[in-house]
Amino acid sequence: MSTTIIRNGLYFDGLGNKGLKKDVVIQDGLIQDVLDNAPTIKGAKEIDATNKWVTPGFIDIHTHYDAELEVMPALDESLRHGVTTVIIGNCSLSAAIGKDEDIVDLFCRVENMPAKVLGEWLIGNIKWNSPKEYYGHLETVPVGPNIASFIGHSNVRIAAMGLKRSFTEKKATTEEIQKMQEIVDDAMQAGFLGVSVDMLPFHRWAGVFNKEFTGVSVPSQQAAKSEYYKLADVLRKYDRVLQITPNAIDKTSFMTIMNLSRGTLFKESIRTTIVAALDLKSNERIYKLLKVLGFLGNDILGAKMKFQTLAEPFKNFGDGPITPLFEEFPSMIAAISADREHRREMFTNPEFRKQFVKEWNHKATSVFPRALKEMWVEKSPDASHIGKNFEQIAQEAKVEPVEHFMDLLAKYDTDLRWWCDTSNHREAVRLELLNYEHCMPGFNDSGAHNVNMAFHDGTLQLLKTALRHPDQMSIERAIYRSTKEPADFLGIDAGDISVGKRADLVIIDPSRIEAEVNTKPVEDFHPALGGSYRLVKRSGKVVQHVFVNGNEAYRNNGEVWFHEDLGKKKIFGQLLRSKLKRK
Questions:
Q1: C or N: which end of the chain has fewer Cβ atoms within 10 Å?
Q2: Cβ atoms 119, 104 nearer than 8 A
């Protein structure tokens, strides 16, 4: 019997209660006691948490670790930030069902990961043939944090219709709809959280193995709205969750989501989590519309919608033309798919350039603000560019900015690395959204767009905001919003560390948060990435201890330490099946 006593910490149970100075006793993976003064126990490990916070482990409600956990199951980049539960299978993409080649093509462009690397991870290694078998597989994976999953609609559509029809036919046949419903029903019986659906056209097929649909929006986006309603009917049976990404171009998609979520006289409402509530630089009024939709849908029409929202500025990096932000541009879809030489030909072609300028100057709302003065050069073969924005560079060269930007893309391609903040740039508005009852902190996208962004530390960013604005958000509320609240909404047993609960907990030094939680990612050349890199975050010594299932997985109170069995033995994270059932 193993025992750990955490003494003198400010204990937050995750239920929203005020922090109290307590001793926490962990025994055999569970919270055994929470006491004013725990007795000495022979053989127990003791940790002095004086002036520290003891909180539940954080829940990352939106990740794309589906492929990564197969080869790097420790998921240490989330653990080091206090995350002890991750949710996979988002944005209609999952590894739960489908051919290995199709799964690579679904994930490769969205994750912005080399096809060779993703292929080595997955090709020949997918041994399961159903959602139930996939969950049986996940039970054996020695994951660091706990995991739970949605089943992806794109995968379900391919499985029911075949690859070609899933892309080319908007309306599925009655038999195909029935097959989709059967797959989803099997997944719900296995304990999946629900279904993820994607309406946003910017998620595209990579075309690594099947080139016919290279650059085409993934199958979930090809479906008729009636198909979404048919799958939602299955979720109603089980009181499960719909994760959905609206079409930012088609505002009617929000009405569709509202109608999917709301109940009727004969149908129950559906828990719905929506990506995402953003304060766009390109339209700083749009977030108010999202708040109105939350009020109208939930308070007036009886829906159960929660918009996911980010706790820090949405910083996105691009390697020349390779960035998810350019998936908005019709002219760039082919360029992103092409090799370097063909891209150079495109950017020197007068017709292509004319089309690009037209798209750059369009007036419709977009995620990407299309402002060269806000796009900053991080790396360039021309050292004089570094630290400047593209408008400055063009002014110094005395040329038209957009034309010069295309010249630079043609000349340097991916050797030119830049970044911009696209949204959530105003702290006051971020806090407003983080506090809003119809939003939920999340949308970290951990594991997605690996060289473009890194938000693994979302909850630490939320705590930083709460410390700055204690009159608007208490620490206990910030912790609740990242632990028990999402756990209850998604239907998993996680998020609090009251007596008898699984000991997934974190010890934090709050005095370090302001100085050491930052928005600047670093490059990580993990051996499993085959020479490529991903962007990750570092938060110094803010998170000092992380326990998963009662076992200490990570420590940093002097130097970084990960348990030697992390990612090797199944003693840490567990597969969390949905506990939601229709009453």
A1: C
A2: yes
**Taking the alpha carbons of 318, 368, 454, 393 in that order, is the dihedral positive or negative?**
positive
Q: Is residue 583 part of a domain?
A: no
Q: What is the number of structural domains in the chain?
A: 3
Q: What are 131's two structure tokens?
A: 């959602």
The H or E element containing residue 515 is helix 513-516
CB atoms within 10 A of CB 410: 18
For the record, the structure tokens of 103 come out as 């799964």
Q: Which of 318, 343, 353, 326 is CA-nearest to residue 201?
A: 326
Q: Report the alpha-carbon distance of residue 80 to residue 566 in Å, rounded.
A: 12
Q: Report the pLDDT value the prediction gives residue 469, as an integer from 0 to 100.
A: 97
Residue 576 within a domain: no
Does any domain span residue 579?
A: no
CA distances from 74 to 84, 565, 571 (A): 11, 9, 11
The CATH number of the domain holding residue 112 is: 3.20.20.140
The residues, any chain, with a CB within 8 Å of residue 291's CB and separated by 6 or more, are 277, 433, 436, 438
CA 463, distance to chain mean position in Å, is: 18
Is 379 in the same domain as 464? no
Q: State yes or no: cis peptide before 428, omega within 30 of 0.
A: no
Indicate whether 84 and 1 sit together in one domain. Answer: no
Strand ranges for 497-559 from DSSP E: 505-508, 522-524, 534-536, 543-548, 551-556
Q: Are residues 29 and 164 in the same domain?
A: no
Q: Express the helix, strand and coil content of the chain in percent, nearest 5 each.
A: 40, 20, 40
Which pLDDT does position 583 carry in this prediction? 62
Q: How far apart are CA 139 and CA 578, in angstroms?
A: 14
DSSP string, 160-217: HH-HHHHHH-SS--HHHHHHHHHHHHHHHHHT--EEEEE--TT-B---SS-GGGTTPB
303 is written with which tokens?
């829906």
Q: What is the pLDDT of residue 254?
A: 87
Copy the structure tokens of residue 468.
Answer: 């700055």
With left for phi above 0 and alpha for psi between -120 and 50, is residue 194 left, alpha or beta? Answer: left
Which alpha helices (H) appear in 239-349, and where do they start and end? 252-261, 286-294, 330-337, 340-347
Average pLDDT along the chain, 583 residues, taken 10 residues at a time: 93 97 97 96 94 98 96 96 98 96 94 89 95 98 98 98 97 98 98 96 92 95 96 96 88 88 88 93 89 93 95 95 91 91 95 94 82 96 97 96 96 96 95 96 92 94 97 97 98 97 98 94 92 93 97 94 97 97 76
**Cβ atoms of 304 and 261 closer than 8 Å:** yes
Contact 436, 288 (CB under 8 A): no
Strand 534-536 relative to strand 522-524, pairing: antiparallel
State whether 351 and 447 are in the same domain.
Answer: no
The answer to whether residues 67 and 21 belong to one domain is no
CA dihedral angle for residue 395, residue 401, residue 406, residue 407, rounded to 10 degrees: -30
- Domain range for 390 is 318-419
Q: b vs e for 340-366, b when ≥16 Cβ sit within 10 Å of the residue's Cβ?
A: eeebbebbeeeebbebbeebbeeeeeb
pLDDT value of residue 1: 60
**In this structure, are 285 and 266 located in the same domain?**
yes
Residue 491: which CATH number?
2.30.40.10
How many Å separate Cα 296 from the centre of its chain?
A: 26
Q: Answer yes or no: do 41 and 95 share one domain.
A: no
